[in-house]
């Protein structure tokens, strides 16, 4: 969701610059900074951004300028009078305390923001032309985000391949663990039979079944493989998929946690921990996907 775009233009003796920036966010967070006289553009800008972008913290700034000789100059007399009165009061207070101050000048006052404004020429339709440039800037931003998306998709695809490798290793490790567990159980059963004449075979079989069920990771393996397929489908789909991928990462993490909890084997536990690391890396990348 990261991107930048800038567009400049001019019409009817008014010049403008659009600056658009976007970073990752769970939803669409749009922030506008418009100059005086252009506030009426906000509803239209929000509409156009919402039609093209679905996620991201987007900052939009518009700067305008009047070309040389365009419009008239207007002084904010109310602001000037208030500032002059405040300056006079400050000078009196400073003088009473023996603190010398540099005298106020008209040039200094005129340089203050908002003191002097220039009127847009009558009949100017610069905003329509500026909106056309905004659309172009928005397209540039969308292309920048799409280019980043291609790179992120490649990173996620490699991560999914690593998940597949780890899941395959987990399945093989679980099978080897089951074989070792079976050998241990058979040896214990033989020793138990030798040491006693009374053994409840049905109860013993139930206990073995309970142990096997608690340690069985077949469902986790199957679900992890299904999540990999679902993630690849989303990466190849058109339209926004960020929220769906975010949810899928939570499912990946849940299965990895369960796999570790059921492992009862150092090798399988190590594989589960490696899997959790890869899932965390994918979750970080998914935060940048629209």
Automatic annotation (TrEMBL):
Residues 173-290 form the Endoribonuclease YicC-like C-terminal domain. The keyword Hydrolase applies. Residues 1-153 form the Endoribonuclease YicC-like N-terminal domain. GO terms for molecular function: hydrolase activity; RNA endonuclease activity. InterPro entries: YicC-like_C (IPR013551), YicC-like_N (IPR013527), YicC/YloC-like (IPR005229). Transmembrane segments: none annotated. Keywords: Endonuclease, Hydrolase, Nuclease. Its cofactor is a divalent metal cation. Belongs to the YicC/YloC family. This is YicC family protein. It comes from Oceanomicrobium pacificus.
